[in-house]
Amino acid sequence: MEKAKVHFDITNVYVAKHIVNNGILTFDTPKRLYGAISMDLSANGETVKLRADGMDYYVSNSNNGYEGDLSIAMAPDWFRQEILGEELTESDKVLVENANSEQSAFALLYEFKYDKHHRRHVLFNCVASRPGIKGENKDNQRDADTESTSITASPMEDGKVKASTTEETPKEVYNNWFNKVWEKDSGASVL
Q1: What DSSP state is assigned to residue 131?
Q2: Which terminal CB of the chain, N or C, has fewer other CB atoms within 10 Å?
Q3: 91-117 burial string, b = 16+ CB within 10 Å, else e?
Q4: Cα separation values, 170 from 46, 112, 174, Å
Q5: How high is the pLDDT of residue 11?
Q6: Cβ 163 vs Cβ 173: under 8 Å
Q7: What whole-number distance in Å separates Cα of residue 12 and Cα of residue 179?
Q8: SS3 letters for 30-67?
Q9: Which residues touch 105 (CB under 8 Å, ≥6 apart)?
């Protein structure tokens, strides 16, 4: 079987909110975050070197997850409420951003198109910043304004940061990737 050589186009972006019951972390059912334009997350960590005997005697790399930006067409109201902590007023149905609101951690699931097999990924422990506010008057109103949120993906308590499918991933696991957050040794998913 020929292996994939390149990837392009981010698609199928889902968010699964962290739920903690009695100190046990689980994930809510993933919700589709439509309108993904791009994602650019850089590896976060550092290299530590100990020089001894005239050489790098000990070298260690830390894995502190990823940081960067996710650009989307527009953050939906459910994302603003459930993840960013905005409050919907009961009678007027107005979304209110409050500096005292708490944001929620979540798993970020997504897919890249590959030349042979579309690889699917999950970042288990993410937080998102509030999207900036921007709008621009343009001569050609066909170019839409977009929103960008900064994503920080940190290691879980057990050290897990990210998981990805491969060409050998069983169909059942691959096909159910966006139904529940996949967890190691739990079959296709956990909840």
Answers
A1: P
A2: N
A3: eeeeeeeeeeeeebbbbbbbbbebeeb
A4: 35, 18, 6
A5: 92
A6: no
A7: 12
A8: CEECCCEEEEEEEECCCEEEEEECCEEEEEEECCCCEE
A9: 17, 18, 125, 126, 127
CA distance 96 to 36: 24
Q: What is the pLDDT of residue 86?
A: 95
Element (H, E) at 71: strand 66-72
Rounded distance, CA 40 to CA 150, Å? 10
The model's pTM: 0.85
Amino acid at 142: R
Higher pLDDT, 117 or 63: 63
Q: Please name the residues in contact with 143: beta carbons below 8 A apart, sequence gap of 6 or more.
A: none
The answer to whether 110 touches 16, Cβ cutoff 8 Å, is no
- Altogether, the residues listed in the chain come to a count of 191
- Note the pLDDT tens digit of each residue in 101-111: 999 999 999 99
